[in-house]
Structure formats: structure tokens, C-alpha cells
């Protein structure tokens, strides 16, 4: 009986370890401000910028825009997505949020304050993007 309990405990520890490892890997980028991206070569866009969603990816996932730029996200996937400020479990309804966007729908947001804005799809935690907002030069 003692051996059986030990085996069960080992199995439970292994399962818990696997779950924690997956969470650790998933959230490492969000702990440090998002995945590392060389922004030196990003074009600084202004006016109106479109980000498309297809194949469960934001295209382009990192953009740099000037204050006052409106970004429109367009869903070209057959499934619903959201554009919600934050990433993964750190997404917040207190920031910008598109609500549910079905296939073919779009949503726009105008960035009025400089900063780096991380965003995600609440349905697909691996769908993440970033908008870097700078003052006009």
C-alpha cells in the first residue's frame, strides 16, 4: 500500500510539474514586457494602420505608430477573435477591448498616449501583438 501511495504521489508531482512548466514557458515573455523584437527597423506609421488576423496570427504583430494614429484590426479567420489590451492571463477589460470579432468584422482604436501597448486574443492566448506609440517626429 505504501509503494502505491508513493507511485501516485510521483505521478501527481510530475503532472503538476508539467502544468507549471507550460505556464512558465507561456508567461516568460509577458513578465519581461513581451517577446524581444528589434524595433529599430520598424517603420513609424501614422494616420490609419490596418492589422489583419489570419491563421490565428496578428499581421503585423508589432507596429510603431505616432500619437493620434488609428489602428484597425480585421478578422480574416473563420473563427472569432478579440483584441484585448494585455497578454495571456494579464489581459484586462480595463484597457482597450474589441469584444468578440467574428469572421469579416473589424474594430478600430485611436492611440492618444505614447507608450507600448501589448494586446492579445482572449480566445487564443498564443495570439499576441504590440503597438509602440511615439510622439510625432
Outline the structure in words.
The protein is 22% helix and 35% strand. The protein is elongated. The termini are far apart. Strands 1-4-9-8-6 form a five-stranded mixed β-sheet, with no helix packed on it. Strands 3-2-5-7 form a four-stranded mixed β-sheet, with no helix packed on it. By secondary structure, it is α/β, with parallel strands linked by helices. 20% of the residues are buried. It has one helix at 2-31; strands at 44-45, 48-54, 57-59, 62-66, 70-75, 84-85, 106-110, 115-121, 124-134. It has one helix and nine strands. It has two domains: 1-32; 39-134, Cupredoxins -  blue copper proteins (Immunoglobulin-like, Sandwich), CATH 2.60.40.420.
Features:
five-stranded mixed β-sheet; Immunoglobulin-like; elongated; 9 strands; 22% helix; four-stranded mixed β-sheet; alpha/beta
SSE blueprint and pairings:
Blueprint: H1 2-31, E1 44-45, E2 48-54, E3 57-59, E4 62-66, E5 70-75, E6 84-85, E7 106-110, E8 115-121, E9 124-134
Parallel strand pairs: 1-4, 2-5, 4-9
Antiparallel strand pairs: 2-3, 5-7, 6-8, 8-9
